[in-house]
């Protein structure tokens, strides 16, 4: 085999390994994003639970927030459905 052919084979193998490594890095980044999002949601649920257990005034606030979020969700979905048509 000529030195050029060996170099070409090594170059192809190097590119294949670089693509494989890039794929693994992308996968690790998405796993990291998922882990941070899970931590954020867990913290939110803990705060929500503590607020719900902490008394009557907070329960009123909690109900108001829940109703507000539901209304905001329906308004947002309405505008998004109108934007698609």
Automatic annotation (TrEMBL):
Domain of life: Eukaryota
Membrane topology field: Single-pass membrane protein
Protein's cellular compartments: Membrane
Keywords tagged on the record: Membrane, Transmembrane, Transmembrane helix, Transport
GO CC list: membrane
Ranges annotated as spanning the membrane: 61-80
Record-linked PANTHER family: GOLGI SNARE BET1-RELATED
Entry protein name: Bet1 golgi vesicular membrane trafficking protein like
Organism: Mandrillus leucophaeus (Drill)
């Amino acid at each position: 085999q000529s030195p050029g052919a060996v170099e070409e084979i090594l170059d192809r193998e190097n590119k294949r390994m670089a693509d494989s490594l890039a794929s693994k890095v992308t996968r690790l980044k998405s796993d990291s994003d998922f882990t941070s999002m899970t931590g954020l949601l867990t913290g939110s649920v803990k705060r929500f639970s503590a607020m719900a257990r902490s008394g009557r005034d907070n329960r009123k606030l909690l109900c108001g927030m829940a109703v507000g979020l539901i209304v905001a969700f329906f308004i947002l979905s309405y505008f998004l459905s109108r934007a698609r048509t």
